[in-house]
Amino acid sequence: MWTELPKRASIYEVSLRDGLQNEQRPIPTSAKVELADALFRTGLQRIELTSFVSPKWVPQLSDAEELARSVVVPEGIITSALVPNALGFERARSVGLREIAVFMSASETHNRKNTHKSIERSLETFREIVPPAIDSGMRVRAYVSTVWGCPYEGAVDPHAALDITRELLRLGCYQISLGDTIGVGTPLQTRQICELFLREVEAERLALHLHDTRGQALVNALVGLTLGITTFDASVGGLGGCPYAPGAAGNLATEDLVYMLEGMGVSTGVDLEALVQAGKTAERIVGRPLPGKMHQAGLFRPRLSPTG
Ligand code: HMG
Ligand code: MG
Q1: In-domain check, residue 111
Q2: Does some domain include residue 122?
Q3: H or E stretch including 170?
Q4: If you measure from the C-alpha of residue 303 to the centroid of ligand 2, how many angstroms do you get, rounded to a whole number?
Q5: Quick check: 2 pLDDT over 80?
């Protein structure tokens, strides 16, 4: 199994969005710019900056335009933002974003709590905005949440998530990020879900978005990797949670993921030392300890010789 690991993996960094959206203390835009700058120095190439959702529902990200206009994005890095509807798309377009991410859930109740829409209404909304966004030159990614389980409904049929995925791909989304929103998945379940999707969806079109609520995120990412999935969403320091998913703790920590991948010869293009620094910046700006293991343990520098 190990000899067949992919050579490369791509990380989609979500700390500035998923990481911060649940923080209660207001974080100034200047501090977010500082974190963005620290992330830009790591080699990460795909960074979700913020959300163009209702500021009433997610006040922490109400500075979305200001943040998007304040960051100076180095060449080669793609920044993206969450968009729920036509107004969000217009807001993202007004600041010149080249990529957006639409989102919905595989379970009806979470979708209604999170977006005040039925699943069918969410799909209708995306039918209205995804093709024009692509026509205007944007790339569109999509999230399907609660694939492993719903905080309100419990077990979720992965076929429901697959139906939604088919439709989002048909609309032109370039990648579907499958979310274990409340971190309930086990490795066996992850294998079953990934195998179901991979029967008809190319691995490059799938990503795993794993919350580490029950300590399973890294092992679930490894399961996905062994099956050929090579894009993983992660958040520096393990910062994160969803305001409309009770119990959704931090995302898979980017440092832990990079440490595992690079340690197994899977290239990420990310400089772990710079990433650890970015984790320290994240911790400073939120003003509380972050849960990432690598973040807490620090860099491991093997000695050159057993006696050295
Ligand atoms: P709504 O209130 O049902 O919508 O919001 P509405 O269309 O009836 O509009 C009501 C008000 O909101 C109006 O303002 C609109 O202008 C405003 P008012 O007239 O009352 O002053 N509004 C907006 N303002 C700014 N930007 C917009 C926008 N849209 C409407 N885009 C909506 C519907 C979806 C917008 C709302 O429910 C919302 O923003 N929800 C927040 C959802 C959210 O951000 N959840 C967390 C992210 S998802 C997540 O974390 C999961 C993920 O990480 C993957 C995983 O872990 O599985 C992605
Ligand atoms: Mg999430």
Answers
A1: yes
A2: yes
A3: helix 158-171
A4: 38
A5: no
